[in-house]
Amino acid sequence: MKYILACLIALISIATSASEVEVLDVTATQSGGIWRFDVTLRHDDTGWDHYADGWRVLSMDGAELGTRVLVHPHVNEMPFTRSLGGVEIPEGMTRVLVVAKDNLGDWGTQNYEVNLLGE
User: Residue 104 sits in a domain of what CATH number?
Assistant: First the structure.
């Protein structure tokens, strides 16, 4: 019983001390009306039990435009950059948001705003 209680306390402390995935940089490039996003993330990945597992591109009103799923931890690779191509951005949209998540929680609260006009 003591072992089970100790494990539960450890899991709760890991979950409550887990840091949010931080979006450090985003490069958006357009080719033929389709966009590619190169997103650099930082997170306190500890292994399969806790790692950054995705990011998505959203319109300014929260509509999902594209999602990149990350299928493994990047413990010794911080920060790291991954790409997502084939993202269709509606005509006239000049700004999007990028938000990331880890495998323990919901989408992060930090929205990285990207100006598609490059200004």
Answer: 2.60.40.150
pLDDT of residue 114: 95
Considering the domain boundaries, does residue 3 fall inside one? no
> Based on the structure, what is the number of domains in the chain?
1
Q: For the whole prediction, is pTM greater than 0.70?
A: yes
101's tokens: 């998540």
Question: What whole-number distance in Å separates Cα of residue 91 and Cα of residue 4?
Answer: 55
Asked if pLDDT for residue 5 goes beyond 60, the answer is no
By C-alpha distance, which of 49, 45, 52, 38 is closest to 112? Answer: 38
Q: Other CB atoms closer than 10 Å to residue 85's CB: what's the count? A: 13
Q: How far apart are CA 89 and CA 65, in angstroms?
A: 7
- Residues β-bridged to residue 70: none
